[in-house]
Design brief:
Helices cover 40% and strands 14% of the residues. The protein is an alpha/beta fold. It has a single domain, classed as Vaccinia Virus protein VP39 (Rossmann fold, 3-Layer(aba) Sandwich), CATH 3.40.50.150. Strands 3-2-1-4-5-7-6 form a seven-stranded mixed sheet. Helix 3 links the parallel strand 1 and strand 2. The radius of gyration is 17 Å and the shape is globular.
Length: 242
């Protein structure tokens, strides 16, 4: 896949976003646009792997993007009862939402932990979307899925430069990597590609750190119920910055 931003299919994206935006989740429209553009630019018959599907908001966008090219979306989510963002009820909502969007035939659900599934995985993928557990250890393990991407393949990461665990993983594993380069972001959605980074690419990662520190500070203020102070940093919401 080309490293430059793919051409935008405005009509197709609007239909995909209309199908997805009422599904509960944290994906913003600009972030959905990134997912759609990169998935819709893939060759015919391509495979996208999504880690962390929740109720299916991003899954619907990706599946809609793959319709014309007859691509396939593999959704990896354990849906474990008792977890903070999953369980059997969430899986039922996921399945109902993708059925309502008429994309269930485009999706293959693998109900398992990405970290447990990855060591035995043998299938090639063409795009990787990571929005699983946000701790450092899980995220850095999930980056290992990149070995199944072609050169130039895209890795989109949600909550990069927003989550402490994910950002530390980016600094530890991508900043010094010789095979992954940072391209751009939409709020906390970051785009990396499987390619040799330049010094400028590395410096742009470092350049995002003030924005990350701001987001972490806002999260602290929200947990202390100091929303008026969070507004001083441009955040007027009860929810974390995404």
């Amino acid at each position: 896949m080309p490293e430059d931003t793919p051409g935008q299919d405005q009509t197709g994206f609007e239909a995909a976003w209309e199908a997805a935006h009422d599904v509960s989740g944290w994906l913003k429209e600009g972030q959905a646009r990134m997912l759609y553009d990169h998935a819709s630019a893939l060759p015919a018959g391509s495979t996208v792997l999504e880690i962390g599907s929740h109720r299916g908001r991003s899954s619907i966008v990706l599946a809609k993007a793959l319709e014309q090219s007859q691509g396939r979306l593999i959704c990896v989510d354990p849906f474990v009862d008792g977890s903070l963002f999953g369980g059997s009820k969430t899986r039922e909502e996921f399945e109902a939402n993708i059925a309502a969007a008429a994309v269930e035939d485009r999706i293959e659900l693998v109900a398992d932990y990405s970290t447990r599934l990855r060591p035995s995985w043998t299938r090639d993928i063409d795009l990787l979307y990571i929005d699983g557990k946000h701790d450092y250890w899980t995220f850095t393990d999930d980056l290992g899925w990149a070995e199944h991407l072609p050169d130039g393949g895209a890795i989109l990461v949600h909550d990069a430069f927003s989550s402490i665990g994910v950002t530390l993983g980016v600094l530890a594993k991508i900043l010094s990597s010789s095979r992954l380069r940072y391209v751009e972001r939409s709020d906390s959605m970051a785009l990396f590609v499987k390619a040799t980074p330049t010094r400028t690419d590395r410096l742009r990662i470092v350049g995002e750190l003030p924005w990350w520190i701001r987001n972490v500070g806002i999260k602290v203020l929200l947990r202390l119920r100091l929303r008026p102070l969070a507004r001083l940093f441009g955040h007027d919401s009860v929810y974390d910055p995404y």
